[in-house]
Specification:
The protein has 303 residues and is α/β, with parallel strands linked by helices. The protein has helices at 6-13, 23-29, 39-46, 52-66, 85-102, 119-130, 143-151, 179-191, 206-210, 222-229, 260-269, 271-302; strands at residues 15-18, 34-35, 112-116, 134-140, 156-159, 197-200, 217-220. It is an enzyme of class 2 (transferase).
């Protein structure tokens, strides 16, 4: 009988990130390569009673750094700019500025900004690459998004196994999980020697994680980390994405770079992907607005 847990198995063969900002989760299930976050995760942490002091400290920092109650202090959140290239670039540069202010010793090379994979968002990634800023294309639900993300130079790509609503709607099941598209993206990237790495997210079960074992990377929430850590690997378990044998790499052709019309046409033709992308952005924007309200209230208490 194997003494290896499923979490150990995944960690051996796949880059493992923590989809949580809860320090206790990191301590219990680490080590991790990265910690990922989004507006929903941050909101979930900030409304905890134990984190009230975090809000007050952030509010004080906002007043010290920006000197105005009207300034937007949520620099790591930019879903409101998801359909604007220039506003996304501006926001990301502000995020980098904030990192430099808070931690001057932290190299910008360690910072990777998650940007929603709209056409405008991916165009922003192209500009940011030229500025030496790493990006991850998130809210990915289609092959077309993955192609353009690689063409603009994203370091990482984050396809969602399940649409975002499953995490906020009790009993909801995604009837069109992204497994076939993920296989298509992975094989295209590998066949063409593309450097962009896949980090899968939006899992709802440990079985889904095992179904993609061996892929470049996954980011997992606390409940699934716990599931994986408490279950042993069955004898004879194999990787769903085993290392590929050496082969001749095909030079990738430019498909969507500088070709907005074809990208939009292809994405709109995949109605499920287009819907999931729009709804994910809207959901994150809802949490973003709630976070902004929390911070504005905290700042006003300091007046």
């Amino acid at each position: 009988m194997s003494s290896l847990t499923k979490l150990d198995f995944i960690r051996l063969h796949t880059s493992l990130s923590c989809d949580s900002f809860d320090v206790d989760v990191v301590k219990e299930f680490g080590p991790f390569v990265n910690c990922t976050s989004n507006q929903a995760i941050i909101y979930g942490e900030l409304i905890k009673e134990s984190n009230v002091d975090v809000i007050s400290k952030a509010a004080e920092l906002a007043r010290t750094k920006y000197g105005s109650d009207d300034e937007n202090v949520l620099l790591q959140s930019y879903m409101y700019a998801a359909y604007s290239r220039d506003e996304t670039v501006e926001d990301v540069r502000a995020i980098i500025d904030l990192f430099r202010y808070l931690s001057p010793e932290t190299s910008v090379d360690r910072i990777c900004i998650k940007i929603p994979a709209t056409y405008e968002g991916l165009e922003a990634c192209r500009i940011l690459k030229g500025l030496g800023i790493k990006t991850l294309a998130t809210c990915v639900f289609s092959f077309e998004q993955a192609i353009l993300a690689s063409e603009v130079g994203c370091c990482f790509l984050s396809p969602y196994i399940n649409e975002l609503k499953v995490h906020f709607t009790p009993g909801m099941i995604d009837e069109h999980k992204l497994f076939p598209t993920i296989r298509q993206i992975y094989e295209y990237y590998e066949d063409h020697g593309i450097s962009t790495k896949i980090i899968l997210g939006s899992f709802v079960s440990s079985e889904e994680v095992m179904e993609v074992s061996g892929i470049h990377g996954v980011t997992l929430p606390p409940l699934i980390l716990k599931e994986l850590s408490s279950t042993l690997v069955s004898p004879g378990t194999t990787l769903s994405y085993p290392p590929r044998s050496t082969q001749t790499v095909k030079a990738p052709e430019r498909v969507f770079l500088d070709n907005e019309h074809d990208f939009r046409e292809a994405l709109s033709g995949d109605k499920e992907a287009a819907r999931k992308l729009q709804e994910a952005i809207a959901a994150f924007l809802g949490f973003e607005n709630q976070l902004e309200s929390i911070m504005r209230n905290a700042i006003q208490k300091l007046v």
